[in-house]
Amino acid sequence: MDVATLERLRQLAVSAYQAGRLADAETHCAQILGSQPEDYPSLVMSGILSAQSGHPQRACQLLQRAIAINEAEPLAHGNLGIVLTMLGQHAEALASFDHAIRLSPQYADAYFNRAIALIRLQRFDQALSSNNEALRLRPDFLPALHNAARLLMQLNRIAEALPYYDRAIASDPSSLQPYIGKAQALMSLGRPLDALIDVDKALTLAPDDLGLLDCRANVLEKLKRFDAALAARARCAELVPNSPEAHYNTGFCLQLMGRFEDALVNYDRALALRPDFAAAHNQRAATLCSLSLFDQALESSDRALAAAREFASAYVNRGIALQALGRTEEALGNFEYAIALEPRQWSAHYNRAAALLQLQRCQEALASYDRCNQLDPENAEGYLARALGLLAQGNFHDGFQYYEWRHRSFPARVLKLPQAQWSGETSVQGKTLFVHWEQGLGDTLQFCRYALLAAKLGASVILEVQPALRRLLSSLATNVEPVTQARMPDDLDAAHRRTAARGAPSEHVQAIAPGPRIRLTTGLETAADSGSRSMLSLPAPRGIAPERLEVLPPAPRIELVTGLERAADADFWCPMLSLPAACRITADNVRVMPPYLFAERQAVARWQRQIGSGGFKIGICWQGSKGKQDEGRSFPAALFRDIAAIPGVRLISLQKGHGSEQLRCLPSGMSVETLGDEFDAAPRAFVDSAAVMEVLDLVITSDTAIAHLAGALGRPC
Questions:
Q1: What is the DSSP letter of 308?
Q2: How far apart, in whole angstroms, are the C-alpha atoms of residue 120 and residue 88?
Q3: Fewer C-beta neighbours within 10 Å, C or N terminus of the chain?
Q4: Alpha-carbon span 230 to 589, nearest angstrom
Q5: Half-sphere exposure (Cβ direction) of 268: Cα atoms closer than 13 Å
């Protein structure tokens, strides 16, 4: 082949390559090499073309032949390094890049590709240094800018990554990947709104780009703007209807929204397209757990593990299903296997702790919760679960302190009032404390008692409760015994409480209006001891030696309200469920005397007449309100069947609303009495329940407000 023809074919090969006609370029190179097998430029180009067409082994051979002909040319060394990286020979690739750089210290591409090889070798700091050298030589080198940002993200230097993404966007505003990377960085920095702004800018350039739509959905899910996130997921599924990933992501969004049935439909679509899609089987299992379909969840977990045997998350979901099915020891084994696969998986440690707690292995459970908190110090769930573990162990002081993490774990009504929040550090003697409700009716019934302890500490308590509980809780304000009535010896005081336990509180206990506080004093005090305080002579209870009584300052009181109007009059405020921590509750003082609430006498008499006295009367309740908080609490009404069959037992329903429909399909022969539509009808929430409980012999209930009411009334439950 003459020189002119050789040169013409070389130019044709280059032109075809630059135009993207790779097959034509390969043809021209083959023509040259057929005549001139030692032609260095054609060997190099043919090697590059082979690599780009998916034949890295052939590319490697061609480039090595080129280097054997001309070892001093850096281009062949640099491209050989790229091919070796493709083949997974990263150490050899690194040597090729180093050789190229020695031959040409200004070879920016070699520094960039050297960084890629170092990334594959997980030598991230060295990779960043090499990448930065490429940027020093070519400041607007877009792939290197993006690579620098990704390396900084990998090194958890996220804030430093942002300027590189900004430089990449400025270098080529039409390039979409830097927008996605920057959004991910902003998300990691806790700035999802800023991330959304950047993604939306990019979407104006490419409204249907799948990467951007996916990124937008991720951001919106983080912001809990699920409807908008679902729209982005649905658009992805429209654009690629045969993509199992698109349907999977739609299902995951629906799962986050609590639309579990719809989520299952989308997971099933993904699995129809890819039956061995392990992640879809796994999330299907998680969704089935949320629907309390634990047998089916176990089956889906097994399918996930058949598709991916070492899938740690599938072992976690399998364990959750097993634990719900009462197979806690097996569940524990699954959680521990998940930890062996992924020692840093938070959910595996979390669920292991829950299983250990159920097995009464409290110390091991607390250690697992501690591990959760080490792995993710910002995740409130771990601290809250540790609080519940401590409380279950009887460590009320530490448990209630950890329970303060609840505000970052689940939605609760926590106000931010201008006054200081009372946490127990400051004395409330003679001060006014505003306490507000924050969770459900049952929580208010259970925790309102701690207002009594705040009053005992000398506070005048303004207690805000839900309007539905106002009437029932009015009896709480008459129960501030430590500061509104003469203290009696323990034996007589106990007798008084037993008497008050049935029906309304005793007539003489009045705390609605503040009056003089009276304290019994024993022994003889001198006038000097008593100072200027006046002394009253009151009749002592029968059978007790007369004692001197001392007038003290006006008593603290509990005032019930149903709004925030009185909040401005308080010196301090406190969420109701923070009272135990503020009052420094321990195992020694956790019990505020039951009863602390009382039924209305007239209502008790009315229900006594209606229910009658025959038989052993058991009030039953089986269903809580719908939602995630009810998982594992409710049970079917039919489970009372064996109790109903006991001779002389009468089952009386205390169930209201959701769950009452089960009474229409009870097992044959099972009978449950109902109390009519007027039972606890508005505005008498729990007023009738309280009165009926005074007539009953026993209450059996799931974990609902009925259980807390029975405890507040001191009724057997």
A1: -
A2: 8
A3: N
A4: 50
A5: 8
3-state secondary structure (DSSP) of residue 156: coil
* Residue pair 569/462 in contact by the 8 Å Cβ criterion: yes
* Alpha helical stretches, state H, 121-176: 124-137, 142-154, 158-171
Helices (H), 627-716: 641-644, 687-695, 705-713
Going by C-alpha positions, the residue among 51, 74, 73, 78 that lies closest to residue 62 is: 51
Q: Round to whole Å and give the CA distance between 383 and 391.
A: 12
CA torsion sign for 305, 307, 313, 314 is negative
Q: Are 50 and 79 in contact (CB under 8 A)?
A: no
pLDDT digits (tens, 9 = 90+) for 292-348: 899 999 999 999 999 999 999 999 999 999 999 999 999 999 999 999 999 999 999
Cα 581 to chain center, whole Å?
23
Residues 57, 87 contacting (CB under 8 angstroms): yes
| Cis amide prior to 37 (ω within 30 degrees) | no
Over the chain (717 residues), the average pLDDT of each successive run of 10 is 81 86 87 85 89 91 92 93 94 95 95 95 95 95 94 94 94 90 92 94 92 94 95 95 96 95 97 97 96 95 96 96 95 97 95 93 92 91 89 88 84 81 91 92 90 90 91 75 33 33 32 29 30 31 35 62 91 92 83 79 93 94 70 82 93 89 90 90 84 94 91 90
Could you give the CA distance from residue 418 to residue 613 in angstroms, rounded to a whole number?
54
Closest CA to 400 of 531, 574, 278: 574
Q: Among residues 160, 159, 158, 156, which one has the least CA distance to residue 132?
A: 160
Give DSSP secondary structure letters for 246-260. HHHHHHHHHHHTT-H
Give tens-digit pLDDT for 452-505.
889 988 999 999 999 989 999 988 865 544 333 333 333 323 333 333 333 333
Encoded tokens for 606: 């009315």
* CA proximity to 308, closest of 283, 343, 325, 273: 283
Q: Using CA atoms, how far apart are residues 684 and 682, in angstroms rounded to an integer? A: 5
Q: What is the DSSP letter of 513?
A: S
